[in-house]
Specification:
By secondary structure, this protein is of the alpha/beta class. It is built from 16 helices and 26 strands.
Length: 500
């Protein structure tokens, strides 16, 4: 059986995911076979495993840090919000259906057998399991049906480390208040406090650390500084969304849709020297980029309506008419077409006019496409003609199929297992694909950079590219170095050995 430890937080974005990833890397470095686990994740950033199953990206990052292949066992329940009061519920990587928050709250305890089956499989295969909670364990209106914080800690018999974010202020109140609102048996499970995102002189902080230990009777296991590491963030709280300045020679703008999904698709473009990538949500922020990307979304029709109402659709059409690149991924690709049809009410039902930039028609279906793919770009023309023949890898997650109308040309040739097919479309300076991760390979980002530089009359030949996989590995090691130095690792191992 594996030893276990659980990371919970006083609130969302306290740093649970990143601390869990750091511990996965540290335990791996120390010679242990370690796996992450989060019983229930609410996220629009998802990933498709080699078996074609869907899971949250936070556990993918943690699996990468642990040096293992991501598995849906690490995230048996995934909630993908479709609106403010409902989500698509995914269990063991497959869609169970759409539920309102009220209906899911009533049903979720029925999912405990699925959670425990997944956990027990990991328990039999690994030395250590690093569990992650969600939000806060002190949401007193939700505690009775909890399956992801203290409820999960009890099921796994996992000691808990409680993380608080000092950067936003009020960390001592949030730590003390969280512990106060727990039941006595739950408080006894919290074996350590971690103060996260600290900037400044620790000598000034120390009196507060001493007092919080006195008040809560819980040991401070460490203070983690505000870390300068480049690790994929979780969902809409990402700092990436707030970068608005234009510093590079080439400017790429990603439209920040209200229900944007898989925004980590575009992280590799940030690594191109001389290229500036930013997220925009208004015509004022859009300015005059060299390339516009319309990303994936959990509600294509709803977000297209938002584009229309915000004036961004008109701005994108103007950009396209100037001959500059527009690239749509998944839901963004669907928006570029002539018509979106939803006969089964998968999204909003009915039909909707698309942006008319690609001659395709999209029909939403009741079944979801989930598969890993690899392939290469076809003989692409237009401003991104340098992509022709370049290989890529990625995955598809979508509820619709797009059919060419008239003179649409397929963008890529993809392979999935033994099947080969044409995928995506392009026309002139407009490109669209269903493949998430299509920009992940260095060869793809370099080809795009060369094209964008050339379109501006600039020479890219002297710009160095980077090996993205090697870069990510170095970032995980850097993360582990920060956290190992900041935490009392001797105490962490003691917690592991003693258990709950």
């Amino acid at each position: 059986m594996a030893k276990s430890i659980m990371i919970q937080g006083t609130m969302s974005n306290a740093g649970k995911s990143i601390v869990a990833a750091a511990l996965c890397r540290i335990f791996k470095q120390d010679g242990y076979k370690v796996a992450p686990f989060k019983s229930q994740n609410m996220a629009l950033n998802s990933y498709i495993t080699s078996e074609g199953l869907e899971m949250g990206r936070a556990q993918v990052v943690q699996a990468e840090a642990a040096g293992i292949e991501p598995s849906v066992l690490m995230n048996p329940i995934l909630l993908k919000p479709t609106n403010d009061t409902g989500s698509q519920v995914i269990v063991n990587g497959e869609v169970l259906g759409n539920m309102s928050a009220v209906d899911y709250f009533k049903k979720k305890k029925e999912l405990i057998p699925h959670i425990m089956k997944a956990y027990e499989k990991l328990d039999n295969e690994y030395d250590i399991i690093v569990l992650e909670g969600a939000g806060s364990p002190a949401e007193i209106n939700l505690k009775s049906e909890d399956i992801v914080n203290m409820g999960m800690a009890k099921l796994a018999k996992a000691p808990v480390l409680l993380v608080g974010d000092i950067d936003r202020g009020g960390v001592f109140a949030s730590l003390a208040g969280t512990l106060m609102l727990l039941e006595e048996d739950e408080r006894n499970m919290v074996k350590g406090i971690i103060v996260n995102k600290f900037r400044g002189d620790k000598a000034i902080l120390q009196p507060g650390l001493d007092m919080i230990e006195n008040i809560t009777k819980v040991k401070v296991a460490g203070t983690i500084p505000y870390m300068n590491v480049d690790i994929d963030d979780e969902d809409s709280l990402s700092d990436r969304f707030h970068r608005s300045d234009i510093k590079g020679l080439v400017d790429i703008a990603v439209i920040r849709l209200p229900r944007i999904s898989n925004f980590t698709d575009f992280t590799p473009l940030e690594y191109i020297p001389g290229v500036n990538l930013r997220y925009v949500k208004s015509t004022r922020e859009l300015k005059n980029p060299d390339m516009i990307i319309i990303p994936g979304t959990k509600n294509t029709m709803g977000d297209l309506l938002w584009l229309r109402q915000s004036g961004l659709e008109a701005a994108i059409l103007k950009h396209a008419s100037s001959g500059k690149v527009v690239f749509g991924v998944c839901g963004g690709y669907q928006m570029l077409g002539e018509v979106l049809s939803d006969p089964h009410g998968v999204e909003d039902g009915g039909e909707m006019k698309g942006m008319g930039l690609l001659p395709i028609r999209t029909v939403f279906e009741q079944s979801k496409t989930r598969t890993q793919v690899n392939g290469e770009f076809n003989k692409v023309t237009g401003p991104l003609e340098g992509l022709a023949g370049v290989a890529f890898e990625g995955y598809e997650i979508h509820m619709g199929k797009s059919y060419p109308l008239g003179d649409a040309l397929h963008l890529t040739t993809i392979r999935q297992r033994d099947n080969e097919a044409e995928e995506g479309n392009f026309k002139d300076n407009i490109y669209g694909s269903y493949v998430h991760g299509i920009f992940d390979k260095e060869e793809v980002t370099k080809a795009i950079a060369i094209c964008l530089f050339r379109n501006k009359g600039l020479d890219y030949s002297e710009v160095d590219s980077i090996d993205i996989k090697e870069y990510k590995e170095k970032q995980y090691d850097l993360l582990a170095d920060y956290v190992r130095e900041s935490l009392d690792m001797e105490y962490i191992y003691k917690i592991l050995d003693e258990g709950m």
